Amino acid sequence: MPRDRFDLVIAANRLPVDRAREGGRSVWRRSPGGLVTAMESVMSDRDGAWIGWSGVAGRAPAPFEQDGMHLHPIALSADEIRDYYEGFSNGSLWPIYHDVIVPATFKRRWQAAYEQVNQRFAEIAAELAADGGTVWVHDYQLQQVPRLLRELRPDVRIGWFNHIPFPPVELFMQLPARDGLLRGLLGADFLGFQRLADAQNFRRACRQLLGDEQVTVRGDVVRTADGHECRAAAVPISIDTRGMVELAATPAVQERAAEIRAQLGDPEHLLLGVDRLDYTKGIRHRLKALEELHREGRLDADRTKFIQVATPSRERLEAYQQIRDDVERTVSRINGDHSPIGAPTVTYLHRSFPREEMAAMFVAADVMLVTPLRDGMNLVAKEYVAAHDDSGALVLSEFTGAATELKQAFLCNPHDIARTKQTILRAIDAEPRERARRMRAMHRQVLRHDVQHWAEQFLTDLATAPRQP
Ligand code: ADP
Ligand code: F6P
């Protein structure tokens, strides 16, 4: 019997499952992305409701129970998907929050749709939260929800976590909606960011753009003119480390890892990349580095193989079509120029895989290439480190949140192709003792700071945040 009020309500753009068509039938599939990876395991041993979009246009499916959670789909019309999700969220905010790797576009129609959809999320969250309950809002798609929800339900504790970076004020201030976004967030009691620098960027934006008349910033607390206090601090997200350690050690995953290597002709060095097919992930730069290494004869196509998993993402947006075209053209050129018959230099996989298969790829890989131009955290880097305790090597971009914690990785600046090439070769050629030393330290780090630790920290910070006097 579903209850109608919940002590903990999660509000995220997507539900943990997505409505998709398979063989002419409508089915629920796991949603893509790090938010779902993290929150799915946090919620698996907690009671609560999750509100989010079902992934298709039109009327929302009826609420349902899954894995002990109450899932409450939110309806988005085709126009709202275009304007709120593809437009404002991924055409305006995403580029600004990721250092304008592609230009941002601003349209007043998009902003209006964003406000309308955020209002809908706030209303449903207000209906579902128990008296004095907690609502945990997620990510850049829902930045107005904290203020709108506080107006409807001043009794609930409101937290928001940003899975992506928060930009420096010089970029943020380009957004025509900038003041409304800040005021929206300031409705929360606690705001969690991936890095200290993100929290500082937010506080600086409040100080500079809202000014003394609207806010006072003391330490990590922002106080608004009506006396409400909102704390903004870093709480870096993580993964279900023990889950990955156990999965990676199962005989089935170990055997599958050996099979993957055998299928590729048992290369001496197996390199791996796993990313949503997004221009922020630096896949183009990574392929350029690898292509040059092959062309210069510094990598041998018989001894070194590369698997690139590129998960389909936001496929109707032009920038995503462009990156897909570029990546696929480059992969095919590398294979055309270098692959021996029957053994491609780059194995390109443009689809989703079960967790077991992902774990097998992590176990199989000698070197993991994580080279985003900007990334809030990058959970893939942590998953690889969890799957290895004293083997393997991680090449990691300095522009990921993960680089703050995984200091023993082979760090690189993906914009610097020459150095990135050297770093890839260093990782490939590192002595087993050096690899083991680096990997052990990183493995300990992700064991100590796992996703349960993150969720507890966030919820404690939220519960103890200062409130309106
Ligand atoms: P983002 O949230 O930007 O997509 P993250 O690296 O933080 O990036 O998280 C991606 C998550 O999605 C990881 O848990 C990763 O294992 C998972 N993932 C990525 N590609 C696939 C795929 N093709 N099939 C299944 N899971 C995937
Ligand atoms: O945090 C980045 C994010 O937008 C998440 O909200 C989501 O998990 C992931 O990327 C996938 O994006 P989308 O929901 O747009 O497919």
Automatic annotation (TrEMBL):
It holds the Pfam family Glyco_transf_20. GO terms for molecular function: alpha,alpha-trehalose-phosphate synthase (UDP-forming) activity. Its EC number is 2.4.1.15. It comes from the Bacteria. Gene3D superfamilies: Glycogen Phosphorylase B. CDD domains: GT20_TPS. One of its GO terms (biological process) is trehalose biosynthetic process. Transmembrane segments: none annotated. InterPro entries: Glyco_trans_20. Keywords: Glycosyltransferase, Transferase. Belongs to the glycosyltransferase 20 family. This is Trehalose 6-phosphate synthase. It comes from Flexivirga oryzae.
